[in-house]
Each structure stands twice: as structure tokens, then as C-alpha cells.
Design a protein that fits this description.
Shape of chain A: globular
Largest interface: A-B, 37 and 37 residues
Strand content of chain A: 25-35%
Strand order of the largest sheet of chain A: 1-8-3-6
Number of helices of chain A: 10
Oligomer: homodimer
Number of domains of chain A: 2
Helix content of chain A: 40-55%
CATH class of the largest domain in chain A: Mainly Beta
Structural class of chain A: alpha+beta
CATH superfamily of the largest domain in chain A: Jelly Rolls
Order of helices and strands of chain A: HHHEEEEEEHEEHHHEHHEEH
Number of strands of chain A: 11
């Protein structure tokens, strides 16, 4: 694929993604699969559990969710991903089957990267190797953080942290979209939808208002103070 | 270091460790640092937060804990590690400072591996590269599992899972050592020491007895049924 076909916004996503940020255009072009940029409609599958994995997906726009079919026939949400996130590095690099399914939650676009070719590149290019490792370790640390938060923080603190993460580039008082439904937010921070609603109500007096999937934070400073440990 | 100096038990630990299991003796010898096998007394430090990292530690015997000094002067337990676990891959491979300190919780022995040399080996040897990646991904998946459990399971279910993990190779009715103090177990499964004691008391009627740091499970089958989802 010709890298020049990527939009300016796509290139910004690539630059902010740890995995691809340090790659030269030539290196990046060598690992993009023939599919290149793929567009998905909401509810379409990027891949299904059990399929043989060769492709790593870097999300350029929109949201995707990973779900796993359980032995009992139920379906568990594993994680939600958005712009700049990479999916399926493990199975694609190790040449295994996808252990879960991935579905578009919104209309979305993703860049398809070839796992075996990335492995080749890691062996010939030290920067790509250390950068790929750094990307993996960043994921590990993010998960270690999640574990710490889930163990030691209240539901309110977890919700405040989630809202601050979602509004990182938003000004005080400016409306922003919550990335997904409230039941998914509840699942993500590990609580029930009922408890989540109660917590949103409590946060009103601290300047958080919501309207459907839109939210406003009066002063981020106030929220940051709520989760600081003294 | 001469690989022949490792005991039979050490070699078993190496074989069961994902990172080193697929390495030839020559490859392994090439990444073991001059220190080789290092012995530590309880409370001794393997490394301290802020030191420049070059060494990855593979624990051969005993327990170690990673703790982090917080801005407010307090000290957080990040994780506890034992036989077969690898420590500090991230900073040692990326050539950074250790982001936390590591201290022996018991008398212990560890094999010291050289980060930069392992990076070299990953580039020349495809098996070592994929095996190292597999080891990292296994850690990632373990953390994803932890996150799922913390979000969706009760304290009792988490404790039962922890006890089953600790007694994997123990027969029904046979006594085994809990790996660390009850306050550390409480921190690990994300509860208070008080709640942990209550939960241990509840588990008595399901055949779990404890005496100091020793525990017995009458029938593992009963515990497994308690955490199965239907």
C-alpha cells in the first residue's frame, strides 16, 4: 500500500501509537497488508474467535470491542479499543488463532498490519524491536495500573479516573462524547449499571453533568483532587 | 557462567519458564551475566527504584516482592513473585531505570540475565524472539484475567481461585504453605485483612482449613465447582 494514501489525521494516529511511531515510511509500508486501510460498518466483525491470526489491527477511527464466547454459550466483553490502539498482536505475531472476536462498535477504520512481516522487521531493525517491546510493556503497565485501581479504589474514584482519561484533550466546561454506552462503562470500571447511575448522580455536585452519551466536566482540577492520594 | 553449575532443580525451573525453556544451553550461557546465580537473604534488595536496569532476574527458589515508593512517602506492594517468574524485563530490555524496588521476602536464589545481550539474541534467533514475545504475552493475558476477576467476581471467588492456584500440585487433604502473609494475600486479591479472615472462616464449611501460614483443602473438586460459571 502507498503510505501517501493515509490522511493527515491517520498519520497523527500513527505518530501517537507507540508501535508505529518510530518506523520509517518504508518500514511501515513493508508491513501494511494488501488490505491497507479497511472500513467497517457498526456491528461488522474485524475477526472471529478461532480464525487463524495473521493481521494486527491499528484503529484509525471509531471504536471496536473484543468479546469472547464462553463454554456456557454466554459472551463476555473483554475490552473496548479506540483510535491509536493495536489489536491482536499476540496471536498475529505468534501465528495462533484469534482467542476472541472483534466487532466494530461504531463505523470505524483500521490499518491492517502483517504479523509475520513485523516479526521479520523486528529481527532486522533494532529500533523496531525495542519500540515493539516498549509498546507491549506499556500495555503491561496499563494493566498493572488497572489491577491496582480495581483492588484499592472506590467505584467513585474509578469513574473519576475514567472520565479524566476520556477528557484529556477537552477544555473545562466543554462537552465531550462518552466513548460507549453506560452499561459498557459500568463493565469497564467493574460495577453494576445501577451503581454507576448512583455514582454519576453523586458526581453532579462536583461539576460532572451527563446528557445521554455526552458529558461535561466543570473543572478537571476538582476531579483530579478527588483521586489524589495524600 | 558454566551452565553445568546449575542444579537439576534449577534446570527444571528453567524448563518451566516460558522465557528460557526453548533456549539452547549455549544461548542461555551467552545471556547469563557474570554474577550467574545470586543468593539473597530475606529482606535483601535485588535492586532499588531508580537504579539503572540491565539485569533480568529469573527466580530459582524463594519469594520476592516488588514495591514502589509513592510521592507521599508511602510504599505500595506491586506484586509478589516466585520460582519460575521473571522480573524487570521491561527496564532491562529497554535500558531504563528500575521503576520500583525488589526485595527478597524469604531467603532466595535468582539467575541474573543480561538485558542487552538478550536483545541481541532476539535479533539473531527467531525462536528466542517468538519465545520472548510469548512470555510477554502470557504476562499480558494473566493480567487481563486478573482484571476480569477483580471486576466481576466476589471476594470469596477470588480467594478460592488463589487457593486453587497455590495448590495446583498438591493432593486433596495434603497440607501446603501459603506463599506469604495473610495481609499480603488480602492485598493480592484486593480486600482488607478483616474481610479476608471472614472469608477464610466461611470457607471452613467447604473444606478449607488454615493453621498460621499452612492450609489444607479437603477436596479441590468442591472449590473448583464454587468458581465455575454456568
Amino acid at each position: 500500500m502507498n503510505i501517501a494514501l493515509l490522511t493527515d489525521q491517520d498519520r497523527e494516529v500513527l505518530k501517537s501509537s507507540l508501535l508505529c511511531s518510530a518506523m520509517s515510511d518504508a518500514d511501515l509500508a513493508s508491513i501494511i497488508t494488501r488490505g491497507g486501510v479497511i472500513e467497517y460498518r457498526r456491528s461488522e466483525y474485524l475477526f472471529e474467535q478461532g480464525e487463524r491470526a495473521e493481521t494486527i489491527y491499528l484503529i484509525l477511527e471509531g471504536w471496536a470491542q473484543i468479546t469472547r464466547d464462553e463454554v456456557d454459550g454466554s459472551n463476555t466483553l473483554v475490552e473496548a479499543f479506540h483510535k491509536g490502539d493495536c489489536l491482536a498482536e499476540a496471536p498475529a505475531l505468534l501465528g495462533k488463532a484469534y482467542p476472541a472476536s472483534c466487532q466494530a462498535m461504531t463505523d470505524m477504520r483500521a490499518l491492517a498490519l502483517d504479523g509475520p512481516k513485523l516479526l521479520d522487521l523486528m529481527q532486522t531493525n533494532r529500533t523496531v524491536l525495542t519500540q515493539s517491546l516498549a509498546a507491549l510493556f506499556q500495555k503491561l503497565h496499563g494493566l498493572v495500573d488497572d489491577v491496582e485501581w480495581l483492588k484499592s479504589r472506590t467505584i467513585r474514584e474509578r469513574l473519576v479516573r475514567f472520565l479524566l482519561q476520556q477528557s484529556e484533550h477537552i477544555n473545562d466546561g466543554q462537552e465531550f462524547m462518552l466513548p460507549f454506552s453506560k452499561s459498557l462503562i459500568a463493565a469497564k470500571i467493574g460495577t453494576s449499571p445501577q451503581q454507576l447511575s448512583r455514582t454519576f448522580t453523586e458526581l453532579k455536585e462536583h461539576g460532572v453533568t451527563t446528557r445521554g452519551q455526552k458529558a461535561t466536566i466543570r473543572e478537571r482540577r476538582v476531579l483530579r483532587a478527588m483521586i489524589r492520594r495524600h
